[in-house]
Design goal:
The protein is built from nine helices and twelve strands. By secondary structure, it is an alpha/beta fold.
Length: about 260
């Protein structure tokens, strides 16, 4: 079970603080929804947590070790990362795109070992991509590509999963399926951190909520206690009602805040 801690994370660009003194700690078994208005610093934070960028100040630790000190191959085995708006640049087959997620587990030379073929076939079927197995990834629809990228992230069975808007471009059925899978990973003891714009799905599936406002950590804690009308008013400048909890939760937007 992974433990991820961030201490005093600060990133400045052009004299402006993109992130300002962000600190929190979370262990495996949680699905953390990262929310905030456009430009709040969500993607920057996820890049730091994934070990893909270095802060101007502060530090990220994974299981007590500074992220910057970890061997890159070892980190790639332990952490899966889905960027915002992923793209396929080369017309490789969809199965090969998904199999790229196994790269950190493969020998330096040679193709995909036979023992991993069943895992690839299972991943394609699980993400509703069996029919697109041989199809060039550049010809997939936006939703199909999104599912292929998620399959690529998860096929290596990472203990830490970081996803930047993982349901963007997905139809309602596949969005619900994706959130169910991410919550299932957390239930299995993995740590999942995902930036989300759909607040109802955040309310229904996340165990914890991390809210950013203008680069600063505005709130962090268990979702039922943290996601409140007052938070939405202060973070998003909207009035909203929140009814139910867990699978029945609903965030109903009323209008813009007049405050």
């Amino acid at each position: 079970m992974s433990l991820l801690s961030a201490s005093n994370l600060t990133v400045r660009r052009g004299g402006r603080a993109i992130l300002d003194d962000v600190a929190f700690e979370i262990a495996g078994g949680a699905l953390v929804a990262v929310v905030g208005a456009n430009g709040a610093g969500k993607s920057t934070l996820l890049n730091l947590l994934a070990g893909l960028a270095t802060p101007d100040a502060g530090e990220v630790r994974l299981d007590g070790a500074p992220m910057a000190s970890l061997d890159r191959r070892d980190l790639a085995r332990r952490r899966g990362y889905l960027p915002q708006s992923p793209r396929a640049e080369w017309p490789i087959a969809t199965e090969r795109l998904v199999a790229l997620g196994l790269t950190p587990h493969l020998p330096a030379f040679g193709g995909l070992p036979g023992g991993l073929e069943p895992r690839l076939t299972e991943a394609l079927a699980a993400w509703d991509l069996a029919a697109q197995r041989a199809q060039p990834a550049t010809t997939l629809s936006g939703g199909e590509l999104a599912r292929a990228m998620l399959a690529r992230v998860l096929i290596g069975d990472p203990q830490l999963v970081i996803a930047d808007e993982p349901i963007s471009g997905l139809d309602p059925s596949h969005a619900l399926d994706t959130m169910t899978r991410l919550r299932g990973l957390a239930a299995d003891g993995k740590l999942v951190i995902a930036a989300l714009h759909d607040l109802t799905l955040a309310a229904r599936f996340s165990t914890h909520l991390l809210a950013l406002r203008q680069g600063r950590l505005f709130a962090f804690g268990p979702t039922p206690e943290t996601l409140t009308p007052a938070l939405l008013r202060q973070v998003f400048d909207i009035e909203a009602r929140i009814t139910g909890q867990g699978p029945t939760a609903l965030v109903d937007y009323i209008g813009l805040s007049k405050a």
